[in-house]
Design brief:
Layout (H helix, E strand, L loop, with lengths): L8 H10 L13 H38 L3 H5 L9 H17 L11 H10 L15 H5 L3 H8 L4 H13 L5 H12 L7 H13 L5 H14 L6 H14 L4 H13 L6 H14 L6 H9 L2 H4 L4 H13 L5 H8 L1 H8 L5 H16 L23 H17 L6 E6 L5 E8 L19 E8 L14 H12 L3 E6 L9 H17 L2
Parallel strand pairs: 3-4
Antiparallel strand pairs: 1-2, 2-3
Length: about 525
């Protein structure tokens, strides 16, 4: 027996390492020869691990150097046959080939169907071996590459149908890679080849889902849709295009007129949801085609117009007609009736539902001949809290700073006036015909010589795409409702009141705008 205190110090440490049950307070029986054997075995095992680690590191650098120094496609593809190839190696190899193809150094056809190339691609993605082994038929290469920059390099090397398929697929997967999307938008947008109507619909859907309204690409899609319109007989495709345009808030009069002409001609073949999408889209982009009345009248005369089972959908229809100024008293009463509102509130509608109800209620009040029901003044809907977006909050601060320079004291300006119409008046003031400010508590406010001004900010999301400073339907309706309250409305777009401009310039812009506003009849 050997006491702990008599044991050599180096053996004590080995015992501690090899047995978690040994404590410093216990006596331990040890066969010294066994301890020595364990030490030797552990030493050899450590040496083996060191050798393996060195071998792995050596192989890693050798393969890396092979890729770095490769001058031909064959040299790069040869690494796929080495057993120690890692995912990092595969990415580097595919990226290198992508760069070569993009620069024109090699042709895609030289390697796109090579089994070794597909093997490297499978290491990056999740390609099913049962799928067709073709580079872009299943998009395993472009969509499987872990680095979006590398995937973007391949885009210029593929055909238009393949690019559309890539965009459609990442849209379906909701993979919003800005680098990849910019590459796709640039290459599809500048392509002289025309897309067919289905490809146009797929591109618009992807852009809508990914919230990527690239102006150049949208212009190309619009032109290609219009060139294919006369030969199209597929309502579902047209319906998809109309819906996507509404989501994108894309206002292209030529495109909207062409779609309206097509829909009027094929209205009997269109299902209910296509016509509803049409109304919503026109409302969102604040556009009235010449034949809009014909379509609305035909739709209202069909059985399917009154057979909308979903309460939210019916609310959307009436709200759209309000924006387009086509809602009659009967339709207004249908959504403002106590029964409809009670049933709608049971669905626990979101904030948008309450805003639309307030919009409709405010619009109904402006109609002198409307005698139907209105929202209960004590309704919880009026307690709705409205919050500005972050970018609009910054814009609001710029407006307040500018107005504080223009007006002598706070009682000349009021901000954040709640209207109970579904929106806030950002600021208001009163001026006489010579632009002199009048206190908001002055008796002169009732004078015919006094002009009450409402400042309405228009942020990025309040504007349509594809046009210059055109407000969307929500902003346009808000402006009309403010007019109904007796205000002159000064729309202040984010493009004019710049958060980056000097305070002096912003004040000058507002003064000039007020002067022009009061000079209008």
């Amino acid at each position: 027996m050997m006491r702990w205190s008599r044991m050599p110090r180096h053996l004590m440490s080995v015992v501690r390492m090899q047995s978690s049950n040994i404590t410093t307070t216990k006596l331990v029986r040890l066969d010294e020869s066994k301890v020595n054997n364990n030490i030797v075995a552990a030493a050899f095992e450590s040496l083996k691990e060191i050798d393996n680690d060195k071998s792995r590191k050596s192989s890693f650098y050798i393969i890396n150097n092979t890729i770095d120094n490769a001058t031909t496609v064959e040299e790069i593809l040869a690494i796929s046959e080495i057993g120690l190839v890692s995912k990092q190696h595969a990415l580097k190899a595919v990226s290198t080939l992508a760069e070569w193809a993009s620069s024109g150094r090699v042709k895609l056809a030289e390697f796109e169907t090579d089994i070794r190339f597909l093997k490297l691609c499978r290491m990056l993605g999740k390609e099913n071996s049962k799928e067709k082994e073709n580079l872009f038929s299943d998009l395993s290469t472009v969509l499987g590459i872990t680095g979006d920059d590398e995937a973007a390099k391949l885009i210029s090397s593929i055909s238009l149908p393949q690019m559309v398929k890539v965009l459609s697929t990442i849209g379906a997967k909701k993979k919003r890679s800005t680098t990849l999307l910019r590459s796709l938008a640039f290459n599809i947008g500048r392509c002289s080849e025309k897309m067919d109507i289905k490809q146009c619909a797929d591109v618009l859907y992807a852009l809508a889902i990914l919230n990527f309204p690239d102006e150049v690409l949208l212009e190309k899609v619009s032109a290609d849709v219009r060139s294919n319109m006369s030969t199209t007989d597929r309502p579902s495709v047209i319906g998809s295009i109309v819906t996507s345009i509404g989501i994108l808030r894309y206002r292209d009069p030529d495109l909207l007129d062409s779609l309206s002409t097509w829909l009027e001609k094929h209205i009997k073949e269109c299902k209910q949801h296509i016509l509803i999408s049409y109304l919503l889209t026109l409302a969102y982009v604040n556009y009235k085609p010449n034949n809009m009345d014909n379509i609305i009248q035909t739709f209202k005369s069909t059985k399917q117009f009154n057979d909308v089972g979903n309460l939210n959908t019916w609310l959307d229809i009436i709200w759209s007609l309000v924006v387009l100024e086509k809602a009659d008293n009967e339709l207004l009463a249908s959504v403002l009736s106590p029964d409809f509102i009670s049933n709608l509130m049971k669905l626990k509608g979101n904030k948008v539902v309450s805003i639309k109800l307030l919009n409709i209620n405010g619009y109904a009040k402006t109609k002198l001949d409307y005698k139907g029901p209105l929202l209960d003044p004590d309704s919880e809907i009026f307690k709705l809290e409205l919050v500005r977006s972050k970018d609009k909050q910054v814009l609001m601060k710029t407006l307040i700073d500018s107005l504080s320079i223009m007006f002598p004291s706070e009682n000349f300006v009021k901000t954040n006036f709640k209207t109970d119409l579904g929106f806030i008046i950002d600021a208001e003031c009163a001026l006489d015909s010579k632009l002199n400010p009048i206190p908001l508590d002055s008796p002169k406010l009732k004078s015919s010589e006094t002009h009450q001004i409402a400042f309405m900010l228009s942020g990025f999301h309040d504007m349509c795409r594809g046009c210059h400073n055109e407000p969307n339907g929500i902003s346009a309706l808000n402006t009309r409702l403010v007019h109904s309250l007796g205000y002159k409305v000064l729309a202040v777009p984010y493009t004019e009141l710049s958060t980056r401009d000097s305070l002096v310039n912003n004040v000058q812009y507002l003064k000039e705008s007020l002067k022009n506003l009061l000079s209008e009849p």
